[in-house]
Amino acid sequence: NKTMTKHTPLPWAKDYGSSKGHIKSLGKNDDSTPTVARYSGYSNIEVCAAIKYDEEKEANAELIVKAVNNHAALVDALKSMCEWHEKQSTWDKGDNGYYKAKELLNSLNKS
Hints:
The protein has helices at residues 54-87, 98-110, and strands spanning 12-14, 22-25, 35-40, 43-47. It is built from two helices and four strands. A hairpin with a 2-residue loop joins strand 3 and strand 4 (43-47).
């Protein structure tokens, strides 16, 4: 059984502050915002060499790939759930996570 290495703390943000071309971690409890990955118009995305541990870099790369590969399926599942709940006139949509799901779906449609 493979032990799962922990990725850099979430949330992550693109182009945070003055760090254009970087994906930064905002999930630490201190003032640091470590770079998780870099990208530019001249190269592909690079999981950041500034992270000291190869295991953490690998875990970050795995998280990025998993998120990208599953994004469309997760959005489709969320849409289906919201559509189903909208058809159920007897459900109290506020008690079952409907509004949180709808809010997330709306934010994904803006990006």
